[in-house]
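Hey, quick one: can you model this chain's 3D structure?
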Amino acid sequence: MAFTFAQKVLFKHCDPAGSVCYPRYFEMMNDCVEAFFDEVLRAPFEDIHTSGGVPTAQIATRFTAPSRHGDHLILTLRVEKVGRTSFDYRMSDTCGSERRFETTATLVHITSAGRPTPWPEPIRETLSAQKDQSA
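Sure thing. Here's the predicted structure for all 135 residues.
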């Protein structure tokens, strides 16, 4: 099952020409991931980051069309692969029927010392269930 996150393009996201400045897309992607952890995994970042974190180990993004101030975007996150200490996701962004970007990324669960550590079992189970529903 895919997780969706609505994002209106705000003034703060735009360059002087009125379109989204590409680094702001990465903030939106992270907002979607953070909402996914909170709403689906029931593991808010404010809890996870007390003893470690979930940094992005790799990300690849293809931008296909610009977004403009006032656009209503839908970011869709799908779990692709679940490992012992990491998971891969695919995310796309649409405005109406037009795709604006597609990205793939790997997140790694780490300790406060920055070392990979296994996902807590409830998180791993939920990630696996999400992957199975996306297949």
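One thing worth noting: The chain is about 25% helix and 35% strand.
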